[in-house]
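Notes taken during the Thursday session

The instructor put the following on the board and asked us to keep it in front of us for the whole hour. The protein is Fumarate reductase. We were told not to look anything up and to reason only from what is written here. First, the residues (516 in total):
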Amino acid sequence: MSRRTNIVIVGGGLAGMAAAIEALRQTRHTAGITIELLEKEAHTGGNSAKASSGISGVLTRTQKNLGINDSIDAFFQDTIKSGRGRSNETLVQRLASESASAVFWLQNDFALDLDVIAQLGGHSFPRTHRRPDANGKPQPVGWGIVSALDKHLKEQAKKNGSCFRLTTGARVTKLLSTAGGRVSGIFYESIDPSTNTVVRHRCKCDVVVLATGGFGGEGGNPNFLKKYAPQLVGLPATNGPFAAGDGLRLATAVGAGLVDMDQIQVHPTGFVQARDPGNPTKFLAAEALRGEGGILLNGLGKRFVDELGTRDRVTTAITKYCSDENTRARYTSSDKPSNVTYVEPSTAAAYLVLSQPVADSFGHGGLGFYEKMGLMNKASSVEELATAIRVELTTLNQTLTDYDKAREGRINDEFGKTAFPQSMLSKGGSGDESFYFWCIVTPSIHYTMGGLRFDENARVLASSGGQPIPGLLAAGEVTGGLHGANRLGGNSLLECIVYGRRAGRQAAAEAIEHLL
Ligand SMILES: Cc1cc2nc3c(=O)[nH]c(=O)nc-3n(C[C@H](O)[C@H](O)[C@H](O)COP(=O)(O)OP(=O)(O)OC[C@H]3O[C@@H](n4cnc5c(N)ncnc54)[C@H](O)[C@@H]3O)c2cc1C
Ligand SMILES: *[C@@H]1O[C@H](CO)[C@@H](O)[C@H](O)[C@H]1NC(C)=O
Ligand SMILES: *[C@@H]1O[C@H](CO)[C@@H](O)[C@H](O)[C@H]1NC(C)=O
Ligand SMILES: *[C@@H]1O[C@H](CO)[C@@H](O)[C@H](O)[C@H]1NC(C)=O
Ligand SMILES: *[C@@H]1O[C@H](CO)[C@@H](O)[C@H](O)[C@H]1NC(C)=O
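Then, after some discussion, the predicted structure tokens were revealed:
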């Protein structure tokens, strides 16, 4: 089957949806321009739907309301520092300076209540926006955002005479290009449900936007991982298996350049579930758990790192200080259901502990959800916590006391922590008894910083010469060069909107030019 459309967007995560919405807006006064979004899964959302900590932004309405004196420059500096000399400054500048309008876009055009802010690791101010609980129920931020955008796009597609089409179950397998090197179309495959056979489609177009996400979900078939970061093969991952680097294969086949492919973020806190500790796919323990003041302990009940350090530092610390028999966090036999074979995780693991005030500010909706999933446990006192995590009470008490002393400025923190969101020993507002939440976390592959070389207008750059490949744009995790050696929490959803919308605008401009 063969047809023609003007703009093809590949991938229905946040970057692809943002690109589609912006392309539609930019072309709404131009008759005859058609746009198609193709998603290989049965539903849109991708890894974007899993995001739980939030979206970064400075000078936002929410920051202003909360009196947070942040700046574009502070955000820029934090991001550059985190990237350790690898990030492209032009790309970071765009990200920081367009962050307020990205958050505003979600709040204003899609009525998303991104009114809760946390300070995540490596950020010097609270600037990562998420959603408050509603009626005691969590409103996961990524899910909320992609649902709102998906609804909007489906309404657009349904309109009479719509120039927009959203096709799920459509896997793009190849890019077509002209003899002159311009990308001119795609091949994709879908399954015909009546015969259960693969149908191949060919679609010519003016512009392709790749928004296929990263390769952190390669799992049992680790092609890129094996090639660029063999030391990580075998670690669990937080990504869905659809994040398999498709866009990288599609684009390099037409000459696109790659950058920083070996820069892979291992998130320090994938949940180890008591009833399935060896599962290679980990549910993510939201960074906001530490952002709101959760602390990390080794198997002896001692802290070993600034919990608000960047992810790579926290991961390195867990790997270094929580991996031998004594220092690794473990469940006791009473935590483990007797009817399953228990496989001790072979990787390093730490305890993540929340005091009552931390739990109150994180939100009990989200914690209740984790509890129900068997990921988070509750202890009703310091004594009970010590027993549950099998550490000496005096050691644990000392750890918590020292933490609070450092928080009050009475001693210097041994690990250089400077922001202490909450106390570990005082009670919060939600009850008379102080209680604790605890869980076990392990480093898990989370985000691939590397990817397609691109410029500030989302144009994909060629491997030789570095010039834009005509007709090929990209946005989101499929791109590389923005986050350098380490991505800060909240910066990825932001990148999807800033560069997704830029890709949409650029695609619209190129498609309109084609009409002439
Ligand atoms: C558990 C988890 C929590 C996270 N939390 C946060 C957070 O709080 N804040 C933050 O900023 N970032 C967070 N991130 C990172 C962030 O969610 C992702 O990096 C970002 O959403 C990627 O968006 P994307 O649109 O580029 O890709 P995705 O959202 O992954 O979407 C890509 C889509 O492309 C589709 N696709 C792939 N190949 C093809 C093909 N060949 N043909 C058609 N379709 C294809 C996929 O099926 C997928 O739906 C988190 C990530 C994970 C895994
Ligand atoms: C905000 O920060 C800037 C520079 O970081 C400083 O000059 C200014 O006085 C601060 N304002 C407030 C209200 O704290
Ligand atoms: C759609 O638009 C066409 C003309 O543009 C019109 O003939 C048709 O009745 C419309 N259909 C609906 C359902 O509104
Ligand atoms: C913790 O230590 C302090 C003094 O160091 C002591 O007053 C307190 O009772 C101890 N608490 C527990 C639960 O052991
Ligand atoms: C950063 O990217 C821009 C294109 O957006 C490019 O012009 C510039 O040369 C790049 N800078 C570096 C240091 O690579």
